[in-house]
Write a structure and sequence with these properties.
- Residues 222-444 form the Fibrinogen C-terminal domain.
- This protein is α+β, with helices and mostly antiparallel strands.
- The protein is built from eleven helices and 16 strands.
- 26% of the residues are buried.
């Protein structure tokens, strides 16, 4: 420790301080040389008790003294006693030797190295932080890739599932195609059999509506055998589904498409008229009522010629189904029904009433001829439809379609009602029904079990 430091420590303590320094080997000799030099420049040496005592002076002032002696283990013991000095500066106690200078130089280099190491460590720490950030980014990217892989795996599984479903559907389609090929083959055999054994071809080869009447009566079309003459015949052939079919009445021998009702009261009914939504205008001419009009899927009139041909080939029953705007259903059943040919104005023959509604048809319209507005019949003009009028009607199923039930005559005509009327149900001519249908089948019809 330098002398000035010792002096400052002494000033704090307000007393004397003793310092001991043990030195070994060459450093002891160097310090000893320094002490000798100090003795020459401002110290007084005094030898006592195997040691040397030196007084330190700074001009006229005594700065203290120190002594040294060799201990038994070969070490040098240095003792210094310094007085309390406030402002007096004493000379340096020691002088730097070459070895001290060396170690001081080495210490400075170590400091520089430590500073360099600190900078290196700081750089390494920064690089470590950068690597940690990079690792975090890579971890996030890895998580995203894992998520993407998971999504791709799910998609792959979904594709596998769809592939399995597609394979199943393909197998089913293959089976259906095979069944269709089998059916086509069987149908081809049936067609070939029919060609070899001529019979009814009407359900295979149908006449075109563009053919003339003379062409329609060609022998190849006219002379057919074993053809269904009505929907009851189709029913007996094993058909149990309602729909549009072709029949050939035995009298007219002209093919006609009809709608067959295979559900109502065991089926077998040939529908000759239907009203259900007002989509077809029934204010038509005599010729249109003769040939038929409308759509067999919705509203239509089959045609007086076809009705004559069908009803005149045997004993037929007529059923009339009625529905009002409250959803109530009723029907009228007539044991006997037919109409004459055009030359007799399609005169009506209907009798044998029964049903769930009172009769408004047979008792008043039986034996009446058919009329349309273009024939000069005033009732047809008032009612705006073709029917078997009798001053004028108690039942008119071909009148104007009014929605809602109660109605006023079209154009506020004072001549009379013109709706779809069944008088005895509502006891009124001014209630128009929502739905009506007329259909016939042989009186001798008996339902059969499905084949």
């Amino acid at each position: 420790m330098p002398l000035a430091a010792w002096r400052r420590a002494g000033a704090v303590r307000r007393g004397r301080a003793a310092a001991f320094l043990l030195l070994r080997g060459p450093l002891l000799l160097a310090l000893w040389g320094g002490w000798l030099a100090a003795g020459e420049n401002g110290t007084d040496a005094d030898t006592s008790a195997g040691g040397n005592v030196h007084r330190i002076s700074g001009g006229p002032t005594n700065c203290g003294e120190y002594s040294n002696q060799v201990t038994a283990d070969g070490q040098c013991r240095l003792t210094a006693t310094l007085p309390q000095l406030d402002e007096q500066r004493c000379p340096d106690m020691f002088r730097c030797t070459d070895e001290v200078s060396y170690w001081l130089h080495e210490n400075e280099e170590r400091k520089q190295q430590i500073l360099a190491l600190k900078e290196t460590i700081s750089e390494l720490q920064e690089e470590l932080r950068s690597h940690r950030h990079r690792i975090k980014v890579l971890e996030l990217q890895n998580e995203e890739k894992n998520g993407l892989n998971s999504s791709l795996e799910q998609r792959f599984r979904e594709l596998e599932r769809r592939h399995a479903e597609a394979s199943t559907l393909l197998h089913l389609q293959g089976s259906l195609i095979y069944d269709m090929q089998t059916q086509i083959h069987n149908l081809s055999l049936m067609v070939e059999k029919v060609r070899r054994n001529p019979g009814c071809m009407i359900n295979i080869v149908r006449t075109s509506p563009l053919m003339s009447a003379q062409e329609a009566l060609h022998p190849e079309v006219q002379h057919v055998r074993n053809c269904p003459i009505d929907c009851a015949s189709i029913y007996y052939n094993g058909v149990r589904r309602s729909g549009i079919y072709t029949v050939v009445p035995s009298l007219g021998a002209t093919p006609v498409e009809v709608f067959c009702d295979m559900e109502t009261e065991s089926g077998g009914w040939t529908v000759i008229q239907r009203r259900q939504d007002g989509s077809v205008n029934f204010d038509r001419s005599w010729r249109e009522y003769k040939e038929g009009f409308g759509d067999l899927h919705t509203e239509f009139w089959l045609g007086n010629d076809h009705i004559h041909d069908l009803s005149s080939q045997g004993d037929y029953t007529l059923r009339i189904d009625l529905e009002d705007w409250n959803g109530k259903h009723k029907h009228a059943l007539y044991e006997s029904f037919s109409i004459e040919e055009e030359a007799n104005h399609y005169r009506l023959h209907v009798s044998g009433f029964s049903g769930t509604v009172e009769d408004s048809f047979s008792w008043y319209h039986n034996k009446q001829g058919f009329s349309t507005s273009d024939t000069g019949n005033i009732c047809a003009e008032i009612s705006h439809g073709g029917w078997w009028y009798n001053q004028c009607f108690f039942a008119n199923l071909n009148g104007v379609y009014y929605k809602g039930g109660r109605y006023s005559p079209k154009g506020q005509s004072p001549l009379g009602p013109d709706g779809i009327v069944w008088y005895t149900w509502k006891d009124s001519d001014y209630y128009s029904l929502k739905k009506v249908s007329m259909m016939i089948r042989p009186r001798t019809f008996r339902p059969r079990l499905s084949p």
